[in-house]
Design goal:
With 461 residues, this protein is of the alpha/beta class. The chain is built from 16 helices and 15 strands. The chain has 2 domains: 270 residues, Glycogen Phosphorylase B (Rossmann fold, 3-Layer(aba) Sandwich); 179 residues, Rossmann fold, CATH 3.40.50. Keywords: Glycosyltransferase, Transferase.
């Protein structure tokens, strides 16, 4: 008998997350939701590459504190040099190199009569779908990005056949179902240059999107109704299950100095500045951002991350922190983002527009200054600006943002008529987001639908 068979005999969901906290956190949170149903046992399958030594304890602590019906199994070590690879390439290559080990593990599970009802993995782990198909295990993808981004992924093979040029060299708008006309420079950064290895890996995953039985998406009907409808009507598309927003609260530590600093600020007076866990700004851009913030004369809380080996404090203009003491606070490294966004003193959010951060801002009803850095963040920026909940930062030809533009955008989101309109729009979206995951909401019902399918899957395996 396989050692995991000592778990209570419930239908088992096998979950394989992907590289990066932006992908891991939503997987952990949806794992907690599934565990809370008390209908399944969960097995998280990891490798030495898809979760770092820091990330594995994070996932284990958050999940095991939520349920005893969760186990972690690590595949044998694979050898790869991540520092030489772009994230999309890394994720794709790790999955490809792990397929043999995964097939062996899943074969052991089946030989032990482990009741498996679903295999859920990341949108960049599609190499695993051939393994599960071979073994007859129902497979599903969990997309931690938007439905709009997923629409683009489904349509990329069509665009690839229509155009020979790289998107970075094109001026002709692209027509993408569910998105309308799209500036080619706003496509995900991974696919701007079709001569790059990243493009090939991205395209490979896009070509595999019709292989799973279903796709769970971290979004909700009221936010992306058109994009979701396009996905559901796509010929040959798997079943779509919008189950978001999936927000992480468990990693938050309320006892932090930045929250105590916020306690001393007036209501809705502070703009929060953070570019997420992966994106970093150049030294020159950090200096421009600092000068623009100071010139805006607004209170600010800035989470400053520098590239590896750099001293964040040394990147700021001389005397910046002392001149802004009391009015501004620079946090070097990390801050509890959801706690900051939900604080009564927080009025707006300068964000890189990662989808997790976008949903967190929406959940807390905080309008954004949209400043994309990489990946599909330009698409998210466009969406939030068109929705009326964000102010667009205008970039120069090289992608830099001038200090005067920082000042303008910050003032616009913090003061005047546009500020009030954006705040009202975000409050409307906040209400819709919370209704979606409440009992009877669209996302709540969508999760129940896929759960019913998984229970039926167990009966036929």
């Amino acid at each position: 008998m396989h050692p995991l068979m000592d778990m209570e005999i419930k239908p088992h969901i096998l979950i394989v997350p992907s590289l990066g906290m932006g992908h891991l956190i939503p997987f952990v949170e949806i794992g907690k939701r599934l565990a809370s149903l008390n209908a399944f046992s969960l097995i998280f399958i990891t490798t030495n590459c898809n979760l770092s030594p820091r990330q594995i304890p994070y996932a284990q602590d958050r999940l095991r504190s939520h349920s005893h019906d969760i186990r972690f199994v690590e595949l044998p070590e694979i050898h790869i040099e991540p520092q030489k690879m772009a994230p999309v390439v890394m994720r794709t290559r790790v999955a490809e190199k792990s397929c043999g080990f995964l097939e062996s593990l899943l074969g052991d599970f089946l030989a032990s009569a482990l009741p498996i009802c679903a295999f859920v993995t990341d949108m960049f782990n599609t190499a695993f779908l051939d393994v599960t198909a071979k073994l007859g295990i129902p497979s599903y993808l969990f997309v931690s990005s938007s439905a709009s981004f997923l629409n683009f992924m489904f349509h990329l093979p069509v665009l690839d056949s229509q155009y020979d040029a790289s998107f970075k060299d094109m001026d002709t708008p692209l027509e993408v179902p569910g998105l309308g006309m799209m500036d080619p420079r706003d496509v995900p950064s991974s696919v701007l240059d079709r001569s790059h290895e990243v493009y090939g890996c991205f395209l490979t995953n896009c070509c595999n999107l019709r292989k799973p039985r279903g796709i769970l998406i971290n979004t909700f009907q009221e936010l992306e109704e058109s994009a979701i409808e396009t996905l559901e009507k796509g010929v040959g598309n798997p079943a779509m299950y919008p189950v978001g927003p999936i927000i992480s609260f468990s990693a938050e530590n309320p006892e932090t100095s930045c929250l105590q600093w916020l306690d001393r600020q007036p209501p809705r007076s502070v703009i929060f500045v953070s570019f997420g866990s992966e994106a970093t700004l150049s030294e020159a851009q950090i200096a421009k951002l600092a000068r623009g913030l100071e010139a805006s004369e607004q209170r600010f809380l800035w989470v400053l991350r520098a590239s590896l080996g750099s001293n964040p404090a040394g990147l700021l203009p001389p005397g910046f922190e002392s001149r802004n003491e009391g009015k501004g606070l620079v946090v070097h490294g990390w801050a509890p983002q959801v706690s900051v966004l939900s604080h009564p003193s927080t009025a707006a959010f300068v964000s890189h527009c990662g989808w997790n951060s976008t949903l967190e801002s929406l959940w807390c009803g905080v309008p954004m200054v949209a400043w994309p850095v990489m990946a599909e963040q330009g698409m998210n920026r466009n969406f939030m600006v068109e929705t009326g909940a964000a102010v667009r930062v205008h970039m120069e030809a090289d992608g830099a943002v001038a200090e005067e533009e920082v000042e303008r955008a910050v003032r616009e989101v913090m003061q005047g008529e546009h500020c009030e309109k954006a705040r009202r729009r975000m409050e409307e979206l906040q209400k819709s987001a919370k209704s979606a995951v409440d009992q009877g909401g669209n996302s709540y019902e969508s999760l129940l639908r896929v759960v019913c399918v998984w229970k039926e899957n167990t009966a036929v395996l």
